[in-house]
Amino acid sequence: MNNEIVMTDDFNWHSFQGVQKRLFHVAIKQGYQDIKLDFSNVKRAFPNGFVPLIVLSEQLRKQGIEIETVLPDDDACRHNIIESNYAAYLSPQSGHPLSSKPNALHQFSDDSSLNDLINSQVHQILERATYAEGVLQSFEWALNEIAGNVLVHAGVEHGWMQIVVHPATHHMAIAVADGGVGIPETIRKAFPEIQSDEDAIAHALKEGITSRPDFGQGKGLTGTLQIVKINAGGRLSIHSQKGRVEWLNDRLEIKGDFPPFPGTFVDIQLNTAESIEIEKALWGNFPGHPFNESLYGKDTPAGLMRMALASEATGFGNRLTGLKIRNKIENLLISAPNDILEIDFSGVELIASSFADEVFGKLALTLGFVGFGSKIRLIHINKFCRSIIDDVVQSRIVQSRVSNGH
């Protein structure tokens, strides 16, 4: 057996499991100190393959093992691996820069960096697509709970998080990982009678089960599982030490796993086109505001959402920018159907007709003239911008009447 591990085709969770077994034999059994991971034949890279591999490689480096990576020959896949920060984190000595893009893999080390990261993730997914009712609230609630567990229970300097949205397939992938002590160890401190790692993870999924009642009520993993169950096509996988628990195809599978994963990896897959009754998942509770209050103002009154348009983009002259902002507006209105969205034009002196039509003209078509006027409030807007918006809204309303034969 040599020190080179060659991957092919898609690199996902199943691919990682194969590589993990090879790494165990090459590094632990055979004692190699230099290992090459060859991705040259890989065509697609997935978070549930690369995120756990990065956690594992970090642990191996702490043992003095050097890891070299060969990037894919496929241009698109190679670009994705670099832009997602996989290349930089797998081989820090390679010199690949860290991307600040929200959909890349990021580290967090404390509550402040976690809050900032989640806020950037929320902004990113709001722009990428539109989501069925309850999906966004469920996403933010689960993300806060799962990532927060890393800070409280893992006993490590940092955790990892990546969110990827695929609008065309209505799919969202959420990956959270750490190289800490693992769920089984923390659970057995409070419940020493539980022997196997997989049973410890399954026990952690029960409501009210927590190893640290001073910090929480044991609802994070339970609520996340309920969210996934309610979302048609949703999936949840939790891998920690020698245990693996998965909600897949409407059943919960509890399995042992070897080699052990050094920490905890949580993989959540949501169908963004299928609604989620979040009150049903969260014991009759509904988040008071669809997103973290720091996104749209801590002092925002009840029943009102606020968007500072100047903070959403550097310019307002094209439809691509308009599409991102319209997606965000539509998601906010879906998430809080009884609220008014206040859009602040402070600092915005000029908008193009194409941008205005993509945002406000198409919103008027979707909401109707009365709905548009009652749901959206424009403040601090100059005469020029208002006239452009009035013009595109009127044009869209006329177009709608003509197409409907009125």
Summarize the helices and strands and which ones pair or pack.
Blueprint: E1 4-11, H1 13-29, E2 34-45, H2 47-62, E3 66-70, H3 75-83, H4 86-90, E4 106-108, H5 111-128, H6 135-154, E5 159-166, E6 171-178, H7 183-190, H8 197-204, H9 220-230, E7 235-248, E8 251-271, H10 278-281, E9 304-308, H11 319-335, E10 340-344, H12 353-375, E11 376-379, H13 383-403
Parallel strand pairs: 1-2, 2-3, 9-10, 10-11
Antiparallel strand pairs: 4-5, 5-6, 6-8, 7-8
Helix pairs in contact: 1-2, 5-6, 5-11, 6-9, 7-8, 11-12, 12-13
Report what the structure shows:
By secondary structure, the chain is of the alpha/beta class. The protein has three domains: 1-95, STAS domain (Transcription Regulator spoIIAA, 2-Layer Sandwich), CATH 3.30.750.24; 100-295, Heat Shock Protein 90; 304-403. It is built from 13 helices and eleven strands. The strands form three sheets. It has a five-stranded antiparallel sheet, with helices on both faces. It has a three-stranded parallel sheet with strand order 1-2-3, sandwiched between helices. Helix 11 links the parallel strand 9 and strand 10 (340-344). The longest helix has 23 residues, at 353-375. The N and C termini lie far apart (76 Å). 39% of the residues are buried.
Task: Supply the key terms.
3-stranded parallel beta sheet, 13 helices, globular, Transcription Regulator spoIIAA, 44% helix, 5-stranded antiparallel beta sheet, alpha/beta, single chain
